[in-house]
Structure formats: structure tokens, C-alpha cells
């Protein structure tokens, strides 16, 4: 069966690939949006923290025998804890300064972390096997869908939805939003704003590590895996609106699908289509899709 003159398995296969990439774009841009929206920090360390999530999952398996399901819980907590330490020791000192200082600091930290992992593990990828429960594929008649790929899309969507609900619909989320607008007033109500900001940064880092664990069985675990994604993810955040949780999630999944379809209809543009979309969106609406002016 052909659609638009293209075999259906090829077309739907690229849509699935786009959804998988979109799931990682959405999760990573979600973490960036949480950190920027709540702390006003442009976190260029995010790609390295995504990579750390994958490496921690690999180390838990190889060194301690803890499999995928344990790593899915432990790796975000471990990497999130390193983010909390980083925020307390360095990033917290820059909150009252221009955004450029935070950008330069986190960019340098990302290079240092990537360099340390490259020095220890080399540049070649390390394998991480798919858990037995998620191996195999579903026969959908028009294509075979790998079970693990479907799991990644589903769990990424659920995590993005849960994060949005926590920030937009709960009392904790209202405290976070209020603290970004008037921290002195929130502090006057007895809420420890510095601790809240530290935990928010740790949560954003944990989201990146969670995405890294999901990515470990799909991509090879290597020190460059985060740097290959971070520029695209920043483009996703810019298109969705800096600090907009919903904008980042919708844009991440949407651009993943657009990128996948572009590989079918015009492969030469697949590596640049996201940046073309970013330029067009910013020309038409400088505040981006769901951003504030």
C-alpha cells in the first residue's frame, strides 16, 4: 500500500522514528523549560546530564548488576543529586547576575563533564541491552513497531503530562511560579525559596537523566550523545517559548514528526528543518508559539 506515492511501511516507519526523537526532544526541552522558567538559568549542562543518565544506567548494570527498571528509578535520583550539589556550589551564586553568566558557566561545566567521561570511557559507544520484557515487535499489518520504541514514546508522554500537571495544577507548582515572580513575598509566607530553587534545578536535571536512561538501549552510550542533541533541544525550547512547559512538550513531539516526514519527502533538509521552522516562527511571532512577550 502506498501513501502519497511512498510505501506505507517507509512512511509510518519514519513517523515512528520522528515520534521517538520527538519524545527525547520533549523530555529534554521540558527539563530546560522547568529550569529556565523557574530559575531563569539557561542550562547548557543539560546535554551532559542527559549523557550522565545513560552512563549511570550502564554503570549500575555492569558494576552492580542493577537492571533497566532499577536504573530508571535510581539514575535520575543520582544525577539529580549531582545537579543539586552543582546548583548549591556554583549556579546559585549567579541568580542575580545577567543570564550570560549562567550560560557561560553551564556551557563550561558541560564541556568539563563530557571531557571527564571521554577520558574515562573513550569515544566509542558502550552497548546497553533492551530489557527482556520490552524486546520484540508488534505486527500492525502495515509495519512492525518495536515494543521498546513504543514504550519510550508512551512513558515520555506520561512524564511530560505529569510534570505539566504538577507545575500548573498543584499547590507546589503555584509556589514555584510565585517564587519566580516575587521571591521575597513567597519567603514571607514561611517558604524556603532557596531550597525550592535548588530542588527545582535537581528535578530538571533528573528529567534529563531519565531521558538518558530511556535512550541508552536505542543509542550507544557515549560521551557525545548529549552534545549531539542539545542544540536541537534549545531550538525546540525557543520555538515553544522560553520557559513554557506546554510549549516545549508540544513542540518537541511536533518537530520530531516534522523531522521524520522530511526524511521521507526531502531528506537533504532533514538536518536543518527544525532551524528553518525556528526562524519562521520567530519572524512571525517573536515571543514564540506559547511564550510570553
Chart the SSEs and their pairings.
Elements: E1 2-3, E2 6-7, H1 8-39, H2 46-64, H3 68-89, H4 99-121, E3 137-139, E4 144-146, H5 147-169, H6 171-181, H7 183-188, H8 193-215, H9 227-240, H10 245-265, H11 273-284
Antiparallel strand pairs: 1-2, 3-4
Overview of the structural elements:
This protein is mainly alpha-helical and 293 residues long. Strand 1 (2-3) and strand 2 form a beta hairpin. The protein has helices spanning 8-39, 46-64, 68-89, 99-121, 147-169, 171-181, 183-188, 193-215, 227-240, 245-265, 273-284; strands at residues 2-3, 6-7, 137-139, 144-146. It has a domain at 25-223. The chain is built from eleven helices and four strands. Helix 2 (46-64) crosses helix 8 and helix 9 (227-240) crosses helix 10. The chain has a two-stranded antiparallel sheet. The chain has a two-stranded antiparallel ribbon with strand order 3-4.
Write a short abstract of this structure.
The chain is mainly alpha-helical. It has helices spanning 8-39, 46-64, 68-89, 99-121, 147-169, 171-181, 183-188, 193-215, 227-240, 245-265, 273-284, and strands at residues 2-3, 6-7, 137-139, 144-146.
Mean pLDDT: 86
Number of strand segments: 4
Low-confidence runs of at least 5 consecutive residues: none
In N-to-C order, the SSE pattern is EEHHHHEEHHHHHHH
Main sheet: which strands, in order across?
A: 1-2
Helical percentage = over 70%
Biggest beta sheet attributes: 2 strands, antiparallel
Strand fraction = under 5%
